[in-house]
Structure formats: C-alpha cells, structure tokens
Design goal:
The model has no long low-confidence stretch (mean pLDDT about 100). Helix 1 packs parallel to helix 6. By secondary structure, this protein is an alpha+beta fold. Strands 1-2-3-7-6 form a five-stranded antiparallel β-sheet. A five-stranded antiparallel β-sheet has the order 11-10-9-12-15. A three-stranded antiparallel β-sheet has the order 8-13-14, with helices on one face. It has two domains: about 80 residues, Phosphorylase Kinase, domain 1 (2-Layer Sandwich), CATH 3.30.200; about 140 residues, ATP-grasp fold, B domain (D-amino Acid Aminotransferase, Chain A, domain 1). The protein is built from six helices and 15 strands. Bound molecules: adenosine-5'-diphosphate (ADP) and uridine-5'-diphosphate. The site of uridine-5'-diphosphate has 13 residues, from strand 9, helix 2, strand 12 and strand 15.
C-alpha cells in the first residue's frame, strides 16, 4: 500500500476522531483518552485509554478478519491511530448479550448475571439526542437506514462474531457478557466498522466475575484503563 498522509479533521465523536487521508478510500481513526457514559453526561479523560483501545481493536479486528469477518481495519499507524476504510455507516448499533447486564436489566426488570440462552440480539438507533432508542428490523427497513439484505447480514455477522469472541475470551479466562457492533458499506460490501474494545463490550473474569470493562467507569469502580489492560494481557495483546 502507498504511503498515506493524514488530512483534515472530519468528525470528533465522544471517544474517537476521524481524519481525511491522502487516499479517498481511507480515514485515520484517532483513539482519544476521552471516556463518556450515560449519553455523554459522565465524562473524563483517562490517561492511556486511547493507545490501549487502539491496540486492542487492532488485535480483535485482525483476529476477526482471519476468521472470515470482513472489517474496515487496515493497519496501525501510531500508538493512538489506525488506518480504516471509509465506510458509509449504517446508523444502527447491533448488540448481542450472552448474560443480562446494563440496559436490559432495567428495561425488563431482570437481575444482572442471568444466562441468556440462546444469546439475545437487539438493534438500537444511533442518535444521542434520542438516547439511542431500541428499534427493530422493521424500523430499519421502513426508515431506509439499511436494506433487508444488510439487516440480515448485520445479524448473521454479529452472531458469527459472538461464536468467535466468546471462545477467544473463554480460553483466556474471561466471559464475554455483551457487546455492540456497528457496520457500514464499502463499494457495496458490508464491513464491520467502528471498534471492538472494552469501551463497547462487557467482560468479566470467569472465576471471580469481576467486571473488567467500561462498567468500571460507569459504576465508579476505579482502575478503568488498568482493567482494560488486564483483558488485553490475558488475550496476549502486548
Ligand atoms: P460516537 O459517535 O458514538 O460519539 P466515537 O467517538 O467512537 O463515537 O466516533 C466514531 C464515529 O465514527 C462514529 O460515529 C462511528 O459510527 C464512525 N465510524 C466508525 N468507523 C467508521 C468508518 N470506517 N468510516 C466512517 N465512519 C466510521
Ligand atoms: N454499548 C456501546 N455504545 C452504546 C450503547 C451500548 O458500546 O452507545 C455497548 C455497551 O458497552 C454494552 C452493550 O453495548 O457492552 C450493551 O449496552 P446496554 O444496552 O446494556 O447499555 P448501557 O446500559 O451499557 O448503556
């Protein structure tokens, strides 16, 4: 691949910034230390989170790519930056849950920690002002956010990722409780976009069930970045 230069800032989200690049098909994705929860109400800068998540995401995206899940990830550029394919994002979050935690507990009045067998799937509409409301596949098709084929593929790929990552985490002594994925299209192909990091999933220690993910930030449990690094170390990410 040719040498790609970083261009102008395109957008700055709650945790990452996207930059144009000298190749129109690619973006520079910058993982910042900024951390937010509860629709941006709770905010903090956590030193080292950007570089930890950048490397974490690279490892997971590489793993998924090798296992046949096409992603936007191209390569690591620096400690806190990656090169990704420029996607036309579908404004939908795909969530798979193996164990009940977070919003499903409030919504359905169930206790945290209950096994969900089979794992459950939820779509959310990505809109901070509306607090990312839960939607179903009919909303996605009626409002034209994605086609029927894309909806089917998002579900299939999100479950495929579950089979792959549940095992990866289990072999490393951890439970993958739930996670969120985002997809986008690139020249007509549906690719996994955004990130897979402890900011967007829940991971518990298999023995102690200690929380090692962003719930440490949401629930003021401390050692947020340190816990992300514990997950990384267990997975063999240096
Ligand atoms: P948020 O938008 O939730 O505040 P981030 O700070 O993580 O989140 O911002 C990243 C933004 O970039 C998100 O809106 C995400 O949908 C978008 N995005 C992720 N991957 C790509 C990609 N490959 N091409 C274009 N946009 C992307
Ligand atoms: N999630 C995310 N971004 C969001 C909403 C959820 O990455 O905007 C992740 C979250 O970290 C968890 C999973 O998706 O791993 C399910 O989140 P949930 O619906 O329980 O919402 P929460 O209570 O965590 O806000």
């Amino acid at each position: 691949m040719e040498n790609i230069e970083k261009g102008k800032l395109i957008s700055s989200g709650k945790a990452k910034s996207l930059y144009e690049s000298s190749n129109p098909d690619y973006y520079f994705m910058h993982y910042r230390d900024d951390t937010s929860a509860f629709d941006g109400v709770k905010k903090e800068s956590l030193e080292g989170k950007g570089s930890t998540n950048n490397k974490f995401n690279a490892f997971i995206m590489d793993f998924l790519e090798q296992k046949g899940v096409p992603t936007h990830f191209e390569k690591l550029i620096s400690e806190t930056e990656s090169l990704v394919k420029k996607l036309e994002m579908i404004p939908v979050e795909c969530v798979v849950r193996n164990i009940a935690a977070g919003s499903i507990c409030k919504r359905l009045g169930v206790e945290e920690g209950i096994d969900l067998n089979p794992p459950t799937f939820e779509f959310f509409y990505k809109d901070d002002e509306l607090h990312d409301p839960m939607i179903n596949e009919f909303h996605i098709k009626s409002f034209g956010w994605a086609s029927e084929e894309q909806v089917k593929q998002m579900q299939e790929k999100t479950f495929q990722v579950n089979d792959l990552l549940k095992e990866l985490f289990a072999e490393a002594g951890m439970i993958l409780v739930d996670y969120k994925l985002e997809f986008g299209s690139f020249n007509g192909d549906l690719l996994l976009g955004d990130e897979f990091t402890p900011d967007g999933c829940r991971v518990w220690d298999s023995e102690t069930r200690e929380k090692l993910d962003k719930d440490r930030f949401r629930q003021d449990l401390g050692d947020v970045v340190e816990s992300y690094q514990i997950i990384a170390k267990k997975l063999g990410i240096e």
